[in-house]
Amino acid sequence: MTGMVTTPEAVPVCAAALCAGAALWWSAGRADGARRARLLLAGGPATAPVAGAVPPWVDEWLTRLRRLWRTRREAVCVPIGCVVALLGASLLPLLIAVAAMPLVRRWLRARRLGRERERREAAVIEFCGVLAGELRAGRQPAEVLAGLAQPDLGPSWPEVAAAARFGGDVPGALRAVGRQPGAEGLNGVAACWRVAVDGGAGLADGLERVAGALRADRDQREELYAQLAGTRTTAVMLALLPVFGLLMGSALGASPLWVLLHSPAGLGALAVGGLLECAGLWWTARIVRAARGISGEARA
């Protein structure tokens, strides 16, 4: 773990390598997009070769890397751990980075699910507004519902359109789609459909009330997020302070990474600091969850 030798020249070399890789990735993406645009405007095939383009093997590897970034973003922990391990002449940062991958994967999955929930909620509100407007224009509910496409509401939505087109159980199909996180408003739509499907005006009124309630709930949640933005920003800044301290120490020539990774006192400080960092992030997340829970009880 201590057989590696770190020199001051390693820092600019690693930074230059990372910048070159990022520039190559970005330029390849731009070149590929520009090439396709020129070919499409010229009326030629999108796969025709262009002189001076990126070599095929480079483009293939960059495509694989971009696909890996879209599907396995937590893998970025490994190159970061490698760079820190190189600068600190120790394998400990690499081991920590590998151990952190499941936590990063869980965090990224939670963010993705949150974005999907917000998209479904917005799609339900839009669906209620469009359906109510069409009903007030004199169209039949089943006719409107059969022609609406809602890709953000998941792969089960075509079952709703099929039920409306062929006289099936539309409320049941709506409730089935409403089991997804963020699509709970469809349960209210199903209730309105069951009691007022024979009168378009009554159904339109119910849909507008459902849309208004969902919109008010979303606005209240966004207001809560805005109020918690200061707390979350403070937590992020406090979490990044140790990184700034290491950078300042390295700029002053104190070799903080070497002290942390190659001395008993440094290893102890690293362990205690890591525990305190995790405890602070956990406590901040607990405060945010408690505030969201209080907000949810107030809405109920």
From TrEMBL:
Main subcellular location: membrane
Membrane topology field: Multi-pass membrane protein
Transmembrane annotation, as ranges: 6-27, 39-58, 78-104, 235-259, 265-285
Entry keywords, A to Z: Cell membrane, Membrane, Transmembrane, Transmembrane helix
Superkingdom of this protein's organism: Bacteria
Domain Type II secretion system protein GspF: 127-248
Name of the protein in question: Membrane protein
Naturally occurring in which organism (per UniProt): Streptomyces varsoviensis
